[in-house]
Automatic annotation (TrEMBL):
Protein name per the record: ATP-binding protein
Entry annotated with the keyword Transport: no
A single GO molecular function term of this UniProt record: ATP binding
InterPro entries hit by this protein: AAA+_ATPase (IPR003593), CHLI-like (IPR045006), MCM_dom (IPR001208), Mg_chelat-rel_C (IPR025158), Mg_chelatse_chII-like_cat_dom (IPR000523), P-loop_NTPase (IPR027417)
Annotated keywords: ATP-binding, Nucleotide-binding
Stretches assigned to the MCM C-terminal AAA(+) ATPase domain: 90-185
PANTHER family: COMPETENCE PROTEIN COMM, MAGNESIUM-CHELATASE SUBUNIT CHLI
């Protein structure tokens, strides 16, 4: 049997959050799906088809909101990527057009982590069995969270273990360079003291942020037209170059940073996509130097593991 589930491209930006336990990483990840716009009719059909194959479609109703999947870090490669005797879709396909949250990222089996690399790049996964050869869509937004080390308190002199800072290096070594290179944004989430939480002013609601995201998506749809990419993260090659409309200083900064930071071609392209999105969120028609600088600040630039060779 040779079966393929249709899918349309809709590239997404991936995020890595690092911080000690209790800093709010899981809470932030859970809020993200609510900021995404509703699925388009075509996307709803794709997602519903995958969920139907997995036996998860309830009452025959279409899935109209981006799915949010959070597998446990003990999940096997087959549970994450898909497989089994009947070649069922895995978590990455169930998160198609939605969010795949991987908490305690370095604790996942190494084989499962490395199996993510190709789907994160191509947006699909192929499961081969003796009686089946199945391709499922897997265009998900990967949100990963990790502690700075195994004990979780690296950098806190009062709580870190006796192996610091070596424990942090060993923990990060569980993640290969090519896998980290696929993360568009890398941020540190630091805990807020309870005394400050009690006095914190009211922030923006999810509805306000979601409206800003929808406005940025609308700018992108108007820029690319009905036949173009769905969003900035889907833009490639000359389409991406034309969309940048970057001023001279911004382009110069991007090129200099790519050389000095030794960004891969993938890393450079992903940085440009992030800069274009930052400009859209700010309502700017052109990508300016500050937008590029902010995008570069989000790139992961930690020590590259010795096993990082490869694409």
């Amino acid at each position: 049997m040779n079966r393929k589930v249709a899918w349309t491209g809709s590239y997404v930006l991936n995020l890595l959050m690092s911080g000690p336990p209790g800093a709010g990483k899981s809470m932030l990840a859970a809020r993200l799906a609510g900021l995404l716009p509703d699925l388009s009719p075509a996307e709803a059909l794709e997602v519903s088809l995958v969920h139907s194959i997995a036996g998860l479609l309830r009452g025959g109703r279409l899935v109209v909101r981006p799915p949010f999947r959070e597998p446990h870090h003990s999940a096997s490669p087959a549970a994450l990527i898909g497989g089994g005797g009947r070649a069922k879709p895995g978590e990455i396909s169930l998160a198609h057009h939605g969010v795949l949250f991987l908490d305690e990222w370095p604790e996942f089996p190494r084989a499962a982590l490395e199996a993510l690399r190709q789907p994160m790049e191509t947006g699909r996964t192929t499961i081969s069995r003796a009686n089946a050869h199945v391709t499922y869509p897997a265009r998900f937004q990967c949100i990963a969270a990790m502690n700075p080390c195994r004990c979780g308190y690296l950098g806190d002199a009062a709580r870190e273990c006796g192996r610091a800072p070596r424990c942090g290096d060993d923990y990060r070594m569980r993640l290969s360079g090519p896998l980290l290179d696929r993360m568009d944004l890398a941020i540190e989430v630091m805990p807020v003291p309870a005394s400050e939480l009690a006095r914190a002013p009211a922030g923006e609601t999810s509805a306000v942020v979601a409206a800003r995201v929808e406005a940025a998506r609308l700018r992108q749809r108007e820029r690319y037209g009905p036949e173009g990419p769905r969003c900035n993260a889907a833009a490639e090659g000359t389409v991406l170059e034309r969309s940048l409309a970057a001023d001279g200083p911004a382009r110069q900064l991007a090129e200099q940073a790519a050389e000095r930071l030794r960004l891969s071609a993938r890393g450079y392209t992903r940085t440009l996509r992030v800069a274009r999105t930052i400009a859209d969120l700010a309502g700017s028609t052109t990508v300016q130097r500050g937008h590029v600088a902010e995008a570069l600040a989000f790139r992961h630039r930690g020590p590259v593991p010795a096993t990082a060779s490869g694409g």
